[in-house]
Specification:
This is CxC2-like cysteine cluster KDZ transposase-associated domain-containing protein. It comes from Mycena venus. This protein is of the alpha/beta class. It has one domain. The chain contains seven helices and five strands; from the N terminus they run E-H-H-E-E-H-E-E-H-H-H-H. It is flat. Bound molecules: zinc ion (2 copies). The site of one zinc ion has 7 residues, from loops.
Length: 206
């Protein structure tokens, strides 16, 4: 099974796929040793013959899977190829690294963990153990441990969400300062909004 990015081609491979430069770094998926064992079991090398694209590890609410990815090689707005990490984000998948991603988390799994940790007090380690067991119920430990990458991506994802909620995610005109994420408090005195300078001075010198 191969995943075709991006949606412009309605699930078909990109017609400009021949422009693709293979990503040699993706031959080892995040350097974990069980990848090669997994590949042999799945007959990965056979399937990979003549395939143009990369292989990646995807973490979803249904488990952890190796999948082949065909990138879209159409020029973007600036005339260059759209980088793989941006293509993944476009497909609602969060890449573990921005340069040559080999592991990625679906937005669904990040949202699921946010709910589980909030309501069920689930720790990330146990949440990932569940995913490993779902992937391989007999030998859960044969599924790679993606804990470090998961924690990093989850924190980044939450930070991006906080920025969106605060309305400063796309605010490139002025530099962000500390305290930008704090909610505006209507009760505290805010000069020019609910109190004047004179009133503030009067309250300081009763
Ligand atoms: Zn394309
Ligand atoms: Zn306040």
């Amino acid at each position: 099974m191969a995943i075709n990015l991006q949606d412009f081609h309605r699930g078909d491979p990109c017609p400009l796929l021949s422009n693709y430069m293979p990503n040699s770094a993706s031959q080892t998926v995040d350097g974990d040793s069980d990848a090669s064992m997994e590949d042999q079991e799945n007959g990965w090398e056979d399937v990979n013959m003549g395939f143009v694209g990369d292989r990646m590890r995807f973490v979803d609410v249904t488990g952890i899977f190796l999948r082949r990815v065909r990138w879209c090689c159409c020029p973007g707005k600036d005339g260059n190829l759209v980088s793989p990490d941006l293509q993944l984000l476009d497909a609602w998948i969060y890449p573990a690294t921005s340069d040559k991603p080999t592991t990625a988390f679906t937005f669904n799994v990040l949202e699921e963990f946010a709910l589980d940790s909030l309501e069920c007090k689930t720790a990330a380690l146990t949440f990932l153990s569940k995913l490993r067991r779902m992937t391989n119920p007999m030998i859960p430990l044969s599924t790679p441990n993606v804990y470090p990458a998961f924690m990093r991506c989850y924190r980044q994802y939450q930070n991006l969400k906080n920025l969106l909620w605060a309305g400063i995610a796309h605010d490139s005109e002025h530099a962000r300062t500390s305290g930008d994420l704090v909610l505006f408090c209507v009760i505290c005195p805010q000069i020019g909004k609910n109190v004047s300078v004179e009133e503030m001075e009067a309250s300081n010198n009763p």
